[in-house]
């Protein structure tokens, strides 16, 4: 088989420049035999990662293995000293947090994770978030092949389409694995990305990364443990209390991703330079999000809703953490350091943003925090936290900019209280 001839055939074939079964057989050094040609396609599928995903879907095992391999580089186990320091911090933090929110505490034990264990726990969530984009990407590559295929190759088109889906799925999986592997060295907790990892909602910390962050920002170690532990507990309590919240935000993101369009013109450009033995151009396009078409007006509205929800979550966590740590001498300095870190984001987070199609970075976090601060001051923490009982009770985007309306509804004495209680009963069917 002559690799140069075969690569030229693939380039021409994908670019719609012709080619037939005889050419394929010749390029592969095979007789013009459809059975042998089909076997060749199978071998190519295997070479491009299709063995474990024969239906052309994304090879999630490949993504997980890739992420774990990266996570293991430089990882250290959780020491007994770290365990004790974190447990002590969480014990203090729990008492303080009880005074800052009406949401109940947690009964399950916190998880102290290595980087590799974080990957294992986080993968199901990231798979759900990225699946729509990944599947659209794989199908777009296959569709491009079908659209440009000459009639002479229609007999093996199904296999060829599977090849491209497998190739696209494998490359996407590798890129996702790399992003998650890098992210495992940056995250400090289960809620650090703004979303809860665990379905059962439990505190999760990555001590190695937590210690590195504290050292890098030159923070007071004991106080940083308490502050960051309270943030994680506040985030977890919120999702534990509002059982609908996790599914709602994940559903919004996956629905947004399902509407993503793939830029077929860009695929055609990449196809012209495609090399089966050197798919760097395709990898680069996946890495930079070059295949994703500009957002539609509907998608922008959906993205605005997602950002509003994330701002409400992060703003509430900020305010509750602020109230719970008011006795902590260095709380303001730690808060500002955390805010700067969150605002800039790391390279891994940015990479994930290009893969999924959006960055999980809410705008208006400061405005949302100020709104929650005003509501709590006006009506108390119980009424403030009760707004999380049902999605229809949550403040809207307009409320973030001006909380007067929602404060008036909640602060109307008995009438306001009755209104809220009745709204809850109506929503819950009681």
Question: Can you walk through the features of this model?
Answer:
The chain is mainly alpha-helical and 430 residues long. Among the domains are: 157 residues, no CATH class; 66 residues, no CATH class. Helix content is 68%, strand content 1%. It has 20 helices and 2 strands. It has a two-stranded parallel sheet. α4 runs antiparallel to α6 and α9 packs across α13. The longest helix has 34 residues. About 7% of the residues have low confidence.
Number of helices: 20
Radius of gyration equals 26 Å
The gross shape turns out to be: globular
Tally of strands: 2
Described by strand count, sense and barrel closure, the largest sheet is:
2 strands, parallel
Indicate the structural class: mainly alpha
Could you tell me how far the N terminus lies from the C terminus, measured between alpha carbons in angstroms?
73 Å
Strand content: under 5%
């Amino acid at each position: 088989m002559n690799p140069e001839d075969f690569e030229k055939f693939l380039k021409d074939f994908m670019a719609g420049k012709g080619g037939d079964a005889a050419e394929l057989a010749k390029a592969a050094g095979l007789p013009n035999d459809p059975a042998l040609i089909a076997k060749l396609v199978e071998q190519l599928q295997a070479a491009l990662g299709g063995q474990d995903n024969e239906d052309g879907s994304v090879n999630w095992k490949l993504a997980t293995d890739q992420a774990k391999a990266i996570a293991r580089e430089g990882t250290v186990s959780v020491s007994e000293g770290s365990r004790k320091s974190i447990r002590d911090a969480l014990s203090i933090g729990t008492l303080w947090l009880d005074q800052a929110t009406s949401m109940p505490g947690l009964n399950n034990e916190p998880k102290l994770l290595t980087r590799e264990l974080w990957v294992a726990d986080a993968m199901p969530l990231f798979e759900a978030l990225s699946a729509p984009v990944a599947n659209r990407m794989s199908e777009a590559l296959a569709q491009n092949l079908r659209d440009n295929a000459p009639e002479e190759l229609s007999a093996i088109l199904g296999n060829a389409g599977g090849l491209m889906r497998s190739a696209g799925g494998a490359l996407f999986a590798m890129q996702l694995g790399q992003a998650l592997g890098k992210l495992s060295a940056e995250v400090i907790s289960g809620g650090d990305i703004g979303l809860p990892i665990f379905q059962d909602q439990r505190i999760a910390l990555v001590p190695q990364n937590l210690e590195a962050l504290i050292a890098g920002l030159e923070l007071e170690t004991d106080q940083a443990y308490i502050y960051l532990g309270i943030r994680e507990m506040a985030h977890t309590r919120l999702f534990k209390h509002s059982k609908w919240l996790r599914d709602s935000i994940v559903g919004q993101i996956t629905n947004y991703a399902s509407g993503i369009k793939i830029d077929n013109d860009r695929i055609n450009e990449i196809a012209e330079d495609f090399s089966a033995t050197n798919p760097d151009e395709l990898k680069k396009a996946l890495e930079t999000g070059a295949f994703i078409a500009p957002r539609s007006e509907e998608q922008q509205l959906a993205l605005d809703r997602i950002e509003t929800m994330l701002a409400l979550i992060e703003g509430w966590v900020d305010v509750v953490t602020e109230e719970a740590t008011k006795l902590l001498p260095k709380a303001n300095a730690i808060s500002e350091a955390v805010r700067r870190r969150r605002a800039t984001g790391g390279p891994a987070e940015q990479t994930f943003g290009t893969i999924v199609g959006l960055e999980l970075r809410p705008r208006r976090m400061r405005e949302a925090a100020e709104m929650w601060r005003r509501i709590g001051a006006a009506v108390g923490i119980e009424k403030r936290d009760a707004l999380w009982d049902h999605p229809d009770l949550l403040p809207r985007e307009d409320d973030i900019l001006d909380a007067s309306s929602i404060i008036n509804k909640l602060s109307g004495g008995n009438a306001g209280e009755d209104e809220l209680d009745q709204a809850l009963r109506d929503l819950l069917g009681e």
